[in-house]
């Protein structure tokens, strides 16, 4: 297991986050489905908590099933609903076996994302009555830009993540590369880390996609699940700060004028 320094939760003035997603998977009584009554209870709970997610859209997903005696092309369809405000700055998805929250407008877990996530988990508890939680995941998709515009990624990220770009032989010829790591970051907590060059607004960038998760088999309570997401946030932030250089972290925190983002 990694020995990570404690996370520093100072808000970033320049958060490099086009997407943050939290998902909790759960088990319910056999035959449970998302009826109109269930959906109405879920939406009413969000409204009661002070969140206006008036845009409701049916969604359907297809998953490929693998296993003995099952053709690889076999799929299972699942249906659910997405809820969002009019500006679609947030998206809540309720399925028969999961609930998720995502946003391209992440600023702070404690002050912004976390309180809404708690409301979403409470609404799922009221509407769906989950019996157990099977998986929780918190994904931070970071797209980093070189502060000096030179794209010398060995200066801005941990060298192991960008080895081809700092190798004397390879760096002049690298057109693209990507890698994935699965890291043991805390008791029962792992992180899938995906890295590689990317493009952001027609400029070169570097992807640092950190999906921190725990696979569980415990009874569901919204408080307990919220607690797990707080642990995932702690581990995910600590890992991010360990994977970028001190110079990059200072740039994201303070920008060019030395002042941190608002608390």
List its traits:
263 residues; alpha+beta; nine-stranded antiparallel sheet; 9 strands; 27% helix; 34% strand; elongated; disordered C terminus; CHP04255; TIGR04255 family protein
- Number of E-state strands: 9
The helix content is: 25-40%
Q: What spatial form do the alpha-carbon principal axes imply? A: elongated
User: Compute the gyration radius: what is it?
Assistant: 20 Å
Q: Give the domain tally.
A: 1
Number of helices: 6
Range of strand content: 25-35%
Strand order of the largest sheet: 2-3-4-5-1-6-9-8-7
| Global mean pLDDT | 88
Helices and strands, in N-to-C order?
EHEEEEHEHHEEEHH
What structural class results from the helix and strand content? alpha+beta
The first-to-last residue Cα distance is 31 Å
Spans of at least 5 consecutive residues with low confidence: 258-263
Main beta sheet strand tally, sense and closure: 9 strands, antiparallel
Structure description:
The chain is α+β, with helices and mostly antiparallel strands and 263 residues long. It has one domain (19-48, 94-254). It is built from 6 helices and 9 strands. The protein has helices spanning 36-48, 109-128, 153-156, 163-166, 222-243, 246-254, and strands at residues 19-27, 55-64, 75-84, 91-95, 98-103, 132-144, 179-186, 189-200, 203-219. The protein has a 9-stranded antiparallel sheet. Strand 3 and strand 4 form a beta hairpin. Helix 1 (36-48) runs antiparallel to helix 2 (109-128) and helix 2 runs antiparallel to helix 5. It is elongated. 29% of the residues are buried.
């Amino acid at each position: 297991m990694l020995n990570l320094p404690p996370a520093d939760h100072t808000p970033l003035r320049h958060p490099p986050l086009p997407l943050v997603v939290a998902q909790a998977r759960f088990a319910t009584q056999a035959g449970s489905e998302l009826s109109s009554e269930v959906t109405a209870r879920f939406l009413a709970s969000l409204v009661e908590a002070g969140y206006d997610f008036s845009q409701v859209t049916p969604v359907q997903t297809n998953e490929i099933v693998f296993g003995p005696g099952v053709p690889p092309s076999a799929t299972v369809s699942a249906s659910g609903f997405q809820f969002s405000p009019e500006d679609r700055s947030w998206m809540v998805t309720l399925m028969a076996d999961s609930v998720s929250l995502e946003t391209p407008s992440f600023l702070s877990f404690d002050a912004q994302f976390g309180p809404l996530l708690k409301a979403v988990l409470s609404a799922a508890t009221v509407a769906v009555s989950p019996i157990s939680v099977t998986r929780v995941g918190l994904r931070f998709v970071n797209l980093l830009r070189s502060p000096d515009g030179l794209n010398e990624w060995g200066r801005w990220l941990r060298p192991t993540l960008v080895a081809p770009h700092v190798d004397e032989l390879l760096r002049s010829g690298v057109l693209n590369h990507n890698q994935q790591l699965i890291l043991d970051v805390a008791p029962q907590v792992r992180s899938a880390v995906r890295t590689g060059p990317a493009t952001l607004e027609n400029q070169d960038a570097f992807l640092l996609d950190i999906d921190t998760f725990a696979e569980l088999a415990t009874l569901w309570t919204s408080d307990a699940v919220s607690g797990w997401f707080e642990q995932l946030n702690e581990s995910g932030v600590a890992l991010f700060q360990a994977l970028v250089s001190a110079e990059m972290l200072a740039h994201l925190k303070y920008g060019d004028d030395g002042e941190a983002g608002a608390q």
